[in-house]
Specification:
Structural class: mainly alpha
Oligomer: single chain
Helix content: over 70%
Largest sheet: none
Amino acid sequence: MRSPRTGRFVLGLTIVAVPLVLALLGPVFAGEPGPRAASFTLGEGHWLGTDFVGRDVWGQVLHGGRPVVLTALAATALAYLVALPVGLISALTRFRWLEELLMRPLDVLLAVPSLLLILLAATVFSPGAVGLALLVALANVPDAARLVRAAAAEAAARPAVEALRMQGETWWRTAVGYVGRSMLRTLAADAGTRLTGVLYLVATAAFLGVGVAPDAADWAVMVDRNRTGLFVQPWAVVVPAVLIVALTTGTNLLFDAALDKGGRRGPRRTEKEARP
């Protein structure tokens, strides 16, 4: 009999597979764009109709997923690339001034809403896809670093860490070899939630025209530009919107199933077993 955990994993994989395949492989099979037709029409060789400027909606769907997915993945990876060393150093350092130097600027940044930060930056310069990924990553660094610091501080307070220090182990082995491994489940749970938030933030920024051209082939841009014809030709809005929701929902289900699987492998190792 299939367990609920396996069911969630299969369901999540099924849901996320469709938008992922379309995002990563869609441009390969899209081919050359055909001639434009009348705006917001159905039929005439366009099985999902045409968009607000007469382009084939299916072709736009095939081209529009890659920017959203790659930007979200890059922003999430960049956020952790900064948050992990900052959080670990802040939790394990014995110098109070270093901890304050690392964390207090992030507290100031944390007070600014993420979308407001992106919009303010967009008034100064026009970010492309790379700039949007950097801005979204910057907006996610403060709370990611605080979470890493909290999880690392809990692991650093264990007797095993003090034993490692007394044995003369290097900071790298203590921080990564023990503390880092101890907080893997916490980071995995946060990564699933954070990736979902990043996807929505990237889509919202693109919806507002930040980081993409007004007529770009992008799922979020499609939702924005075609909403005026929602009741005339709904597929130009419904299909990209459903794909974005499926991507975020499926990602959360996959992470939930993976964490549930990891949590049922047996009791955690004792401090003595964790020592090298």
